[in-house]
Amino acid sequence: MSLTNEFENDLIFKEETYKNGLHPKVPKSEKQGVAVILTGGCKDDIVVDKYTTVKEIRQGKYTQLVEISTRSYIKEIKFHSPSKQTYYSFDVYVKGVIQVNDPIIFYKNKNLDVDAYFNNLFSLDVKKVTRKYSILNYEGMDDELQQTLSSCTIDESTGFVYQISVVDAAPGEEAKEYVRKYEKMLLDDTMRKQANDMAKSITITYKDAINSEVIEGNLTQTEAILKIEEYEKANYDEKIRRLDDLREKGVITDIDFRKSIQSTLKLSDKDDNLNQNTQEDSGMNQFYSEEE
């Protein structure tokens, strides 16, 4: 069944031949939510009400009677709307209340594909809004859509009055996959940075603590160097184990692992040179003290 047929079956209750003549019968029009119109005459179509007269009907020579629903009904529409990244789109859901406001105009447009019409009508306004938002950050878009579409509108060209009650937009499936990959990339980069920072910061933190002890006079420089060497030897294997564990879990790559190891070895070599120079300075100071 086509969309047009579904629409006509819902809102056009009756289309039948009307017997006109010298004394035509005024159709009953008391049904709530139903408009009765007379059409197919020599004058303009009329909506039958309590003021309609036999003379008016006879002069109009109407030949057809139509009953149309004027009750409000809900229309739900789903469509795609482009985002700021035009190659990804939002899935949009619009729910509105629609009602025949002008039965005569509506009947003249009875073959209108209503779903296609309202789809196009709503999507034009929606697209103006969604194009301003990224699929990575669309906070506030639903509110703007609601404000844009929420006003009650009379469509004089189709005989409808409508009002949007719900507007919801979210990234489509392809966009969601892109967002997932993007968020995973950010998470991986963060964890990789933390892993690299961890490899660099453990010894430095310990050295800061030992240097404080030296400044406070609790340790000599020689004692401090020995403690740092002991700490580095005790923790080197632990660093390697942690980095290897991160590599096994896929947090860092083999390249990251090797770079971290090389960085650790370079730090150790630099510290060894520093320790050696410090020890030599300390020995020379001790030699001159004994000479004095």
Question: Can you put this structure into words, describing what you see?
Answer:
α6 runs antiparallel to α7 (221-248) and α7 packs antiparallel against α8. The protein has 292 residues and is α+β, with helices and mostly antiparallel strands. The chain is rod-shaped. The model is unreliable at 1-9 and 274-292 (pLDDT under 50). The protein has eight helices and eight strands. A hairpin with a 6-residue loop joins β5 (73-82) and β6 (89-100). The protein starts with a helix and ends with a helix. The strands form two sheets. It has a four-stranded antiparallel sheet with strand order 1-4-2-3. 54% of the residues lie in helices and 20% in strands.
Radius of gyration: 41 Å
> Strand-residue fraction?
15-25%
Q: Main beta sheet: strand number and arrangement?
A: 4 strands, antiparallel
Count of helical regions: 8
Shape: rod-shaped
Order of helices and strands: HEEEHEEEHHHEEHHH
Low-confidence stretches: 1-9, 274-292
State the secondary-structure class: alpha+beta
Task: Please provide the count of β strands.
Answer: 8
Strand arrangement across the biggest beta sheet: 1-4-2-3
